[in-house]
Amino acid sequence: MKITFLGHAALRIDTGSHQVVVDPFITGNPLAKEKISLDSLEPDYILLTHAHQDHVLDVEALAERSGATIISNFEIVSHYQAKGLKGHPMNHGGARDFDFGWLKYVHAVHTSSFADGTYGGQPGGFLLRAGGKQLYIAGDTALHMDMKLLPHYGNLDLAVLPIGDNFTMGVADAVLAADFVECSRVLGVHYDTFGYIVIDKKQAREAFAKAGKTLLLPEIGESLTL
Ligand code: NI
Ligand code: MN
Question: Which of 48, 97, 162, 173 has the fewest CB atoms within 10 Å, measured from its CB?
Answer without folding.
Answer: 97
